[in-house]
Amino acid sequence: MSGVQLQRDFAARIRQPEAQALLPGISGERMAIYEELFFNNVASLVGGAFPVLRGILGAERWQRLLRAFFAEHQASTPYFLEISQEFIAWLQQGYHAEPDDPAFMLELAHYEWVELALDVSDAQLPERGWSPLAWPLAYRWPVQMIGADHCPTQPPAEPTCLLVWRDSQDRVRFMQLAPFAYQLALRLQAGEPAVRAQLELATAHGLAADRAYFDNARALLDDWQARDIWFPHSED
After folding, report:
1. CA–CA gap between residue 194 and residue 203 (Å, rounded)
2. Fewest CB within a 10 Å sphere: which of 130, 132, 142, 226?
């Protein structure tokens, strides 16, 4: 047996010890040490990133979910800090739901992951424009309100729009956005000049682009500037 095949068989056994035979010359007791070590490392990394989801699912379901992720998912990164992102990718593509799994599961997991992703991001605050550390998000479910004591079974009629960002003090912050603010944030994030974005939004929504309209928009932009979300150009 080649060394490469041996490594593959070893990894297969670690992933699914109940389905793979022991490798020749390695005792079950010795192999169990590796199996537990690898699984516990992944379980610790994933569990720390999704505390709300873990609490809602309960210990038994969470353990089954982690076992399935560990056995099935082929990670595209070797970095421990990106394991939680791999977990999100698996939930989107390879996860098989159980009957009692909440319908908001993927969105809640994504919302929890965003905080970690921004916390460890090496992006920097810009001198001008929209911060790469400010993410406008829209969910079907009110993910910011979900917890062990609040698990909705039906999504609200309107989506939940949020802004999550990291400020100049490296603190990750959250706020809920009105639909207009969310759409403005998306346009600024895409690099659109602020004045043009406001005018196009007024046209799209049939609003009068009068002084009151621009005063309200300016107040919103000033607030975002104060919170390290948006940094105006001279023409904004």
Report:
1. 14
2. 226
Cα separation of 106 and 149, whole Å? 18
In a 10 Å sphere around its CB, with 0-12 CB exposed, 13-18 middle and 19+ buried, how is residue 193 labelled? middle
- Identify the burial level of 227 via C-beta atoms within 10 angstroms of its C-beta, where 0-12 means exposed, 13-18 middle and 19 or more buried: middle
Q: Are 149 and 212 in contact (CB under 8 A)?
A: no
- C-alpha closest to that of 114 among 156, 151, 166, 62: 166
Q: What average pLDDT does this structure show over 208-223?
A: 92
**Is residue 163 within 8 Å of residue 118, measured between CB atoms?**
no
Please give the DSSP secondary-structure letter assigned to residue 66.
H
Rounded-to-integer distance, Cα 183 and Cα 212, Å: 19
Give the Cα-Cα-Cα angle 15, 18, 77 (nearest 5 degrees). Answer: 5
Return the residue matching tokens 């009957």.
99
Rg of the chain over CA atoms, in angstroms? 23
Specify which of 22-31, 67-76, 143-152 reaches the highest per-range mean pLDDT. Answer: 143-152
